[in-house]
UniProtKB/TrEMBL annotation:
It is found in: Membrane. The keyword Membrane applies. This is Protein TORNADO 2-like. The keyword Transmembrane helix applies.
């Protein structure tokens, strides 16, 4: 039984370690400028990772000091957490399935349209109240200012692979036909009725295209890319936790069977 408890403790220690990349994924998301402005995914991931860490620690303590009550709590709580983590992985995958950039002639960067993304993501940015807060946050970052430092000549900028957020927020949509001066300063043509976003563009550096639907779409494209990367980490951690949970369950079941057999044998000696 002591050997079995040590095995279960070692297995639970692995579960404890698997919570670290989950917490790390949440922290990584929080450090991204766009996610810091939206604040949708990072806290659920961080909190879930911390709870998994605490539950795994409970299982480790229960196995190491042979406290059956803590082990039972671990088995029930970890099962619930695995289901929650699996649901989160599926949710992130489902809301990031849609939404990709569109190519434009003589441009290396892509253009993004808000309607291409999932309805759930669209609702996060369509509300004027929500977007005003996000817009203020985005305009306070150096995301667009960095373009002026990196690109001087028009062709260098047109051949650049800038981020979706920079494409949507820092310049007018390509179909507006604006004339390039620098990445964040453009001269509008006499008639610019290609889209509503064309009239929303401003050369004021705190305004730019932060009020445009293209900026909302660029933000969602950025979120999609970052969330997909984080979701891959969560999926790997989920697979590891499921495997560890099954090993702990089987080890505990075998330990109980050995204990019952030992008691039964002792009863007939």
């Amino acid at each position: 039984m002591a050997l079995s408890n040590n095995v279960i403790a070692a297995i639970n220690f692995i579960a404890l370690l698997l919570s670290i990349p989950i917490i790390g994924a949440g922290i990584w998301i929080a450090t991204q400028a766009d996610n810091a402005c939206v604040q949708l995914l990072q806290w659920p991931v961080i909190v879930l990772g911390i709870v998994i860490f605490l539950v795994a620690l409970t299982g480790f303590i229960g196995a190491f000091w042979r406290i059956s009550g803590l082990l039972m709590f671990y088995l029930i709580a970890m099962l619930v957490l695995i289901i929650l983590l699996g649901s989160l992985v599926l949710f992130v995958f489902s809301v990031t399935m849609r939404g990709s950039g569109h190519t434009e002639p003589s441009r290396a960067y892509l253009e993004y349209h808000l309607d291409d993304f999932s309805l759930w993501l669209q609702r996060r940015v369509r509300s004027s109240h929500k977007w005003e807060r996000i817009r203020t946050c985005l305009s306070s970052t150096t995301t667009c200012a960095e373009l002026n430092q990196n690109y001087r000549l028009p062709q260098d900028f047109f051949n650049a692979h800038i981020s979706p957020l920079q494409s949507g927020c820092c310049k007018p949509p390509t179909d507006c036909g604006f004339t390039y001066v620098n990445p964040t300063y453009w001269i509008s043509p006499i008639s610019n009725g290609a889209s509503v976003d064309c009239s929303k563009w401003s050369n004021e550096q705190t305004e730019l295209c932060y009020g445009c639907d293209s900026c909302k779409a660029g933000l969602l494209a950025n979120l999609k890319e970052e969330w997909r990367n984080a979701d891959l980490i969560l999926l790997i951690a989920l697979i590891g936790l499921v495997f560890v949970y099954l090993m702990a369950f089987l080890a505990l079941k075998n330990a109980k069977s050995e204990n019952l057999f030992r008691r039964h044998k002792q009863g007939y000696v």
